[in-house]
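Narrative summary of target 7.
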Amino acid sequence: MNFFNLFKIALKALANNKMRGFLTMLGIIIGVASVITMLAIGQGSKQSIKSQISEMGSNMIMIFPGNMERGGVRQSSDDQQTMKVSDYEAIRDDAKFVSYVSPQVSSSGQFINGNNNYPSSVQGITQDYLEIRKLKVAEGEIFTDEDIKTAAKVCILGQTVVDNLFTNGEDPIGRVVRFNKIPFTVIGVLQEKGANSMGQDQDDIVLAPYTTVMKRLLAIDYIQGLFCSALDEDMSDEAQDEITEILRAQHKLKDGEEDNFTIRSQQELSEMMNSTSDMMTILLACIAGISLLVGGIGIMNIMYVSVTERTREIGLRMSIGAKGRDVLMQFLIESVIISVLGGIIGVILGVVASELVKAIAHWPISIQPYSVILSFAVCTITGVFFGWYPAKKAANLDPIEAIRYE
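Modeled conformation, tokenized:
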């Protein structure tokens, strides 16, 4: 008996039990739809995180005073004052794998404009900081080298700060705002960036020359950190090694002595977030995959019932010349048809469910081609695996005993 005839017989058998066939498919449909939807959510989250980190500066390197690897031992105030302006200048002048570098100092307090006030912090930096953090000035201008040299009382506001201080829609450029009683002239407004992947408002920011924050606000002679940008994301490791070498020489640390600074890269953060996202995606896919297993067991159960119900039919076919392999293929084709049809419906349902999640919950999604291909492959394997044993049982029936079966 040829394959085409076996296929027609299998379709006819399924058509005679439409409701039972659909209910059998339901487990596969739910399983495939769940896998596609969960993988779409997981991959969408991963791409969103990568995009957010890229916007913050994918090749950014952060250096902080003190060694954060000393377990739970609290750092002394001296450990937090080990970084000087000379460290910034050394990296700026000597580092070959660093494209931009900026010192960083910050002070928290209250910004006041007339009757409006808003709690925030002012970041003391250089112009390079905007390149490192992918920030752009939408209106006005950035401060100059002369402003840094003279510790000028000028600042650039983020959009959130502007919205809270200038509630009547006034143009902030050229206006004077007070920060802890110190007047600052607003010379620029940053382009909006929105919240990052951790939910932090990137527009709640005020930038000023680092010398202004050090001398006029904090009255300190050290910096609180350094922000650098590697020449390329692939050169982050070389840049970190180079920075470590320069800072150890600057701090006169001998061989064997621990670093009194900590270096962290955005690449490390990206890898950690991607690892967490991948783990969650795999977990979600495994949970959804249980539905496919349940669907497969459902196929096996129904095929067993079908073999039992059609025992006499099988006996008659074999008595008039049908071979065991023909019976085996007939039932195997039936189980594969159930699986593949369930898979097709499941893929459509999974795509629709993913789009609904995006539209209703506003979650980022990304439907990957491999998830659809994987779903079809799993469906086919499920049909063969769970349909094999019942089909083999049917093929091994004794024709005489099968005809006598009541």
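The longest helix spans residues 266-309.
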